[in-house]
Amino acid sequence: MIPTPPELDPVIHAQARLRVMATLSTLGPGDQITFSRLQELLDMTPGNLITHLRKLTAAGYVNTEKRGGRTSTTFVEITPRGRSAFDHYLAALHDLLTPSGHVDRVSSPAHDGRAPHTKEP
Amino acid sequence: MSQSQGVAMTDRSQDVVSSDPPSPELLLALVEGQQRRTEHLTTPDPRVMYGTWGVVWFAGHLLLFLGGLADPLLPLSAALAVFFGMLVVGNAVVGVELVRAFHGLRGDSRRFGILYGLTWPIGMTAVSLVVVAAGAHGLPDPLAGMLFATLPAVLTGVLLMAGAALWDSRVDFGLGCWFAVLGTASAFTSPPTTNLLLSLLGGGVLLVAALVAALRRSGRPRGEG
């Protein structure tokens, strides 16, 4: 694993989880997606996706919910905290592209995912 | 497939294990590619939506025009039968596309999409039945034919503009304005000229919209889709 620059949330700073967050954040607020459809959109193996969803769930960025009886379906959604953390992560990436902009950037939003996303000019 | 989509697909699901950290540019491209892929696969494809109704309007009204000529190229009843058949097939194609886009999703976006999608066939059926009722009340055939062609065009304009407001789409708002104007203007003509106008300027415009959507999706890395 590469070292994570201090500005970048280590939970999101893995390409697989970054893609999961990009997918879930594209859905509308409150929208949920089944595990199998998410897997299809990501082109991931079930085992891989489960592993990454566990890490994102542990960080409070993603919720999973099982519904139904014997043939239960798992629904996945991004949490407001996860959406905020993802916005911060993208802002930090943009700051890295324009070095002058990231001087004032607070550290990883992983510990404070509710901080508002401030847009850079 | 765009370059960034290629990045999204080829990186699959592995953590970052390379000794060289991925650049912010690559990570942003990864995000954009995946967001675009998600948006494309979870929203109704504009190529299918515009294309389907473009074909129905263009070919259907062209047949009604040819069947309504003083020296008709085919019986008007046959043209009407084909037109209704195309409407049924068009609704089926659009229904399948909505199911494809929304399967596995739950929440407001899917609910709004389904309700909006149902508004079309219900609205069109209601408007058409009103014209049928007007005919039963003694409205002359040429007038009924004009209303049967133009009222759906006006309703199409209104629904496109309403959808544009819901999903913030300038393209749909522009198309909606166009159909409202076209439906109104063509009401000052009589069939079969009315049908020719709706075929060329209604169906034709929808086919152009489908073509533009196809070009945007295949050509530009950041198309609206």
TrEMBL record, chain A:
Q: Which parts of the sequence belong to the Winged helix DNA-binding domain?
A: 17-96
Per UniProt, the keywords (alphabetical) are: DNA-binding
The record's listing under CDD domains reads: HTH_ARSR
* InterPro entries given in the database record: ArsR-like_HTH, WH-like_DNA-bd_sf, WH_DNA-bd_dom, WH_DNA-bd_sf
Cross-referenced Pfam families: HTH_34 (PF13601)
Bias (Basic and acidic residues) occurs at 111-121
Gene3D superfamilies assigned? Winged helix-like DNA-binding domain superfamily/Winged helix DNA-binding domain (1.10.10.10)
Annotated spans, Disordered: 100-121
MF terms from GO for this chain are: DNA binding
What name has this protein been given in UniProt?
Winged helix DNA-binding domain-containing protein
Q: What's the source species for this entry?
A: Actinoalloteichus caeruleus DSM 43889
